[in-house]
Design goal:
single chain; elongated; two-stranded antiparallel sheet; 2 helices; alpha+beta
Length: 62
């Protein structure tokens, strides 16, 4: 299932397949709270904060 509801995920999910912003997929066995704690421990406190993806500007051929 796909959901952004963290309360729901924490109570239902036993495994998490996280599609990260840098085109990587992470498999984690555990609840949302366990995943969030693991991410904070391994990647830092601001790793779960939303951020904008930076795109390259479009350039039209001359």
């Amino acid at each position: 299932m796909i959901s952004h509801d963290r309360w729901f995920l924490d109570r239902v999910a036993t495994h998490i397949l996280a599609f990260e912003g840098d085109s990587q997929v992470t498999w984690f066995e555990g609840s949302w709270e366990e995943y969030a704690a693991w991410v904070k421990e391994t990647r830092g406190a601001d790793a779960l904060e939303p951020h904008r993806i930076k795109y390259k500007p479009l350039v039209r051929p001359a």
